[in-house]
Amino acid sequence: MSKGRSEFSDNSAYGGSNVPVVRNVFFRRSRGCPLEGLSDEELDYKNIELLSRYVSERGRIMPSRISSISAKKQRKLALAIKRARVLALMSFVEQ
Amino acid sequence: MSLYESVFIARQDISAQDVDKLSEKFSKVVTDLQGKIIKKEYWGLRSLAYLLKKNRKGHYVMFGVDASPEAMAELQRQFSLSEDVIRNMTVRVANIDKSTPSIMMRPVGEKAPERSGDRSEKYSDKRKGGDE
Predict the structure, then answer these.
(1) Shortest CA distance to B10 belongs to which of B105, B81, B83, B63?
(2) Interchain CB contact of B107 with A (< 8 Å)
(3) Out of A6-20, A25-39, B95-109, which region has the weakest mean confidence (pLDDT)?
(4) Average pLDDT of A18-45?
(5) What is the pLDDT of residue B105?
(6) Whole-structure pTM over 0.95, yes or no?
(7) CB contact, 8 Å: B58 with chain A?
(8) How confident is the model at residue B8 (pLDDT cuts 50, 70, 90)?
(9) Is A46 in contact with B104 (Cβ distance < 8 A)?
(10) Rounded to a whole number, what is the distance in angstroms from the first to the last CA of chain A?
(11) What is the CATH number of domain A33-95?
(12) Which residue of A has its CA nearest to B57?
């Protein structure tokens, strides 16, 4: 019994330290899509400068949960990056 | 008739004049099949992101075309037949801006044109609204 109780208190202490992290996530969520208001012509396979901002160091497409891009823009962005890769404007893998 | 953007990459070891001749040849393919070349851009000798048929660089040429699907199929067939073309891509587009050159024509390091400057202002207004 007493052992169980001590575990319990440990857990609550752990939970207490977690609170600021949760708050942080909440704060980050409040930012809007960074590509909001961007026209379709702008989000294009030719615009490598823009596209390369949403690609990891290894050349992978960044997940929208990190870049906080809206689902609609993310679909267009992914298509544009894939087209740029075909034309060797961007690489598939950066070694 | 539909609007297309067609890009091809020519081998690195041919001259810019040869590239001109090549693009003349390809635009003739389209015009012979009642298509129209609305826009033609030479992006120059760019370095490729990865090797293409052992080429490190390539001459990029883009066409803005208003043509039938059949004409585009023929153009793509000609691309694949040509030994000088190492890669090609054709995509359907909603509209082609005849007057403004595409972003690739902008010299490296130059600032974005006024239009996007206006947009960024609009952006910052929106951001302010979101924060409140």
Answers:
(1) B83
(2) no
(3) A6-20
(4) 69
(5) 80
(6) no
(7) yes
(8) very high
(9) yes
(10) 56
(11) 4.10.640.10
(12) A88
Residue of B50, B53, B111 to mutate when probing chain A, most A C-beta within 10 A = B50
- Output the pLDDT for position A37: 81
How far is B31 from chain A, CA to nearest CA, in Å?
25
Q: Across the beta sheet with B85-92, what order do the strands follow?
A: B36-52, B55-67, B2-10, B85-92
**CB nearest B87 (choices: A37, A88, A90):** A88
Q: Could you tell me which residues are beta bridge partners of residue B64?
A: B5, B39
- Termini Cα distance of chain B: 49
What is the pLDDT at residue A19? 47
DSSP 3-state of B7? strand
The domains of chain A are located at 1-30, 33-95
Report d(CA B23, CA B105) in Å as an integer.
17
Hey, are the CB atoms on B49 and A85 less than 8 Å from each other?
A: yes
Sorted by where each starts, the structural domains of chain B and their CATH numbers stand as 2-96 (3.30.70.60)
A interface residues, B as partner, C-beta within 8 Å:
30-32, 36-38, 40-42, 44-47, 49, 83, 85-92
**Residue B64 clears pLDDT 90, i.e. is over it:** yes
Segment A57-79 shows an average pLDDT of 92
Q: Give pLDDT, residue B109.
A: 59
